[in-house]
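Operator note (shift B, R.M.): manual run for Nucleoside deaminase requested after the automated queue skipped it. Running by hand, logging everything below so the morning shift can see what happened. Input copied straight from the record, untouched. If output looks odd, do not overwrite the archive copy; leave it for review.
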Amino acid sequence: MTASVAALVGGAAGTGSATPTCELDEPTRSAPDRLLGYRPTLEEQRFHALRMAQAIRVAAGNPKYPFGAVIVDDTGTILSEGVNKSAFHPGHHGEVVAINSYIDRHGNSGWPNTTLYTTGEPCAMCMGMIAWAKIPRVVWASSVDVIGRSGIGQIAISAIELAARSHGIYQPRYLIGGVCAEVMDPIFLNRPR
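Run finished. Output pasted below as returned.
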């Protein structure tokens, strides 16, 4: 094994102690401020709450893992929906099921005119799929922190950070958390185990 490969794999002299570092460029450092700077109007807040109610309705299909997602067009028409089915497949999170359903119905196009609503902040896998699809608007209810406190294991990386680190492929218009969290947080925290 060459010295450079050894350093990557196991750190200095194969000790396993090296931690890879990744320098953050300016677009990555500034993306969270841009993403967190979006302030919906009162009319937009009502629109988001109505669409989130649809995602919450979908989530009721799996009370143990209440992750529901809907993808809507600019008029609010539901184009697809998905509920967590990870008991059958580890990758079948609500967002992934909704994206796959969208593709089955509409093909892999039309993403610029869509918004994804989900009852829980997208995990790393789901946010990666959202980034590759280039869904420009993502809205969620409960945070990764709340979901973790509910006993559902999480990778503790926020959707905002994931989007910021994906700027080379993905520049969403906005990501909004906490929409209808007052409804979803208790559902997650009191879910059947």
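Quick read of the result: The longest strand covers residues 114-120. The chain has eight helices and five strands.
Leaving this for review. - R.M.
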